[in-house]
Amino acid sequence: MTEFFRAYPWVAYLLIFLLTSYVYNKVFRQRKLPILKTAVIYMLLAFGSVMLLFFQLAGLPIIPSLSIAVILMLMVRIRYFVQEREKNKESQQTSDRS
């Protein structure tokens, strides 16, 4: 996999940028920001992605690490979804009995 990303650094950069953007949106973004502040944040994410690309090309597992972080975040979202669904079923059952 490392050889592929070394051969196609733009693919690696795009993956790094998309994964870090997803992590930012799901973890750090508390509220919707004005358009100029959002543009500044994404420019900083793009610059940070360049630095992470250099680490990826040097042999560090940046893309696999970000992928694992995204997978774990998706697992947590699925878990919250299932818990909310069970909670709604229980509340419907108790309201039906009343």
Descriptive notes:
With about 100 residues, the chain is mainly α. About 85% of the residues lie in helices and about 0% in strands. It has 4 helices and no strands. It has helices spanning about 1-5, 10-30, 35-55, 60-95. Helix 2 (about 10-30) packs across helix 3 (about 35-55) and helix 2 runs parallel beside helix 4. The longest helix has about 35 residues, at about 60-95. The termini are far apart.
Describe the structure using short key phrases.
98 residues; mainly alpha; 4 helices; 87% helix
Short description:
By secondary structure, the chain is an all-alpha fold. Helix content is 87%, strand content 0%.
The proportion of residues in beta strands is under 5%
The sequence of SSEs as H and E is HHHH
Largest sheet: none
Percentage of residues in helical conformation: over 70%
Which structural class best describes the helix and strand composition?
mainly alpha
Arithmetic mean of pLDDT:
92
Strand runs, count: 0
Number of helices: 4
Distance between the termini: 59 Å
The poorly predicted ranges are: none
Shape: elongated
> What is the C-alpha radius of gyration, as a whole number of Å?
19 Å
What's the helix and strand layout?
Blueprint (H helix, E strand, L loop, with lengths): L1 H6 L1 H20 L6 H23 L4 H36 L1
